[in-house]
Amino acid sequence: MAGRDAPPRSPGAGARPVGTLRTVRGLVLASHPAPAAVVTALAAAMAAALGSGPGRTALVALAVGTGQLSVGWSNDWIDAARDRAVGRADKPVVAGLLTAATLRRGALAALVVCAAASLATGLLPGPVHLAAVAGAWAYNARLKSTAWSWAPYAVSFALLLVFVVLAAPGGRAPAPWAAAAAALLGVGAHVANTLPDLDDDAATCVRGLPHRLGRRTAGVLAPAVLLAAVAVVVAGPAGPPGPLALGCGALAAGLAVAAGAVAAARPRSRAPFALGLAVAVVCVVALALAVPDVAV
User: Fold this and answer.
1) 130 contacts 118 by C-beta, under 8 angstroms
2) Membrane-crossing residues (predicted)?
3) Over the stretch 140-188, which tens digit does the pLDDT of each residue have?
4) How far is it, in rounded angstroms, from Cα 216 to Cα 52?
5) Which helix (H) or strand (E) holds 21?
6) Least C-beta-crowded within 10 Å: which of 91, 102, 138, 262?
7) Which residues have CB under 8 Å from 236's CB, separation 6+?
């Protein structure tokens, strides 16, 4: 891991400056833009649906968005040495787009903005969101290499939903089923997300829960947990589920069965990863449809 913000050097060559555009591109890629954008957009949409006005919704989006940036950048900063060791050319630091020190500064700056925006939502919701972000940082720093790698995902996803509800007007609390669904979504997303990197992780002594379970078991577990999250979202709200909720449940079940079958028969296939992410997307859609019922 780089200890200073010097441009990458090749053996025997002078310093090669990293241009502004390259650095910006590296920051975007290191932020893990797709999941960061989805989480931020979902939080903002939930806040608006729960009655938060434009200003409060923007504040929630700022807190969640900068929190996601801090988590993504800290992940690539902390993992820089591991990524170099296995030649992860898809990682911005390894590709020479920016340095680990730049990511460290970006992660800490984003964390400061996240703390200010979170606390601006109130003395109760603010610390809840900061606890969620702290859980994600704990995963990056240490827990990803332990059998408890799933715990930060479960806790942080649940706390994120709690934060959005507490930040909304009306003094409401999150429905227990909603927090449980968010926790299951986090665990399933964690297991699915590790599937493509199991070999690289093993080469650098990262042994979280999915690594300990093995590729085949993890490939079956990810869609199963995500399907459980969808089932909780469909069955949780009061009253019988509507056609859209039932449709989400049926689609998730089909995708989960396909993912589990492929994972059991062809553990090296990337299909279980893609199908698992599809189940996660269905879960997010189902949760979005149930937003009016997530607060009580």
Assistant:
1) yes
2) 108-138, 150-168, 217-238, 244-265, 272-291
3) 999 999 999 999 999 999 999 999 999 999 888 999 999 999 999 999 9
4) 43
5) helix 20-30
6) 138
7) 175, 177, 178, 180, 181, 290, 293
Rounded Cα–Cα distance for residues 101 and 105 (Å) = 6
Name the nearest CA neighbour of 163 among 55, 289, 70, 56. 56
- 20 conformational bin, left if phi > 0, alpha if psi -120 to 50, beta if neither: alpha
Q: For residue 104, what are the CA distances in angstroms to 79, 93, 190?
A: 11, 12, 23
Cα gap 172→180, rounded to integer Å: 17
Residue from 267, 268, 255 nearest 224 by CA? 255
Domains, in order of start, for the chain: 18-170 (1.10.357.140), 175-296 (1.20.120)
pTM reported for the whole predicted model: 0.86
Question: Do residues 256 and 137 lie in contact, with contact meaning Cβ atoms separated by under 8 Å?
Answer: no
Side-chain half-sphere CA neighbours of 166 within 13 A: 19
pLDDT tens digit sequence for 194-209? 888 788 787 787 889 9
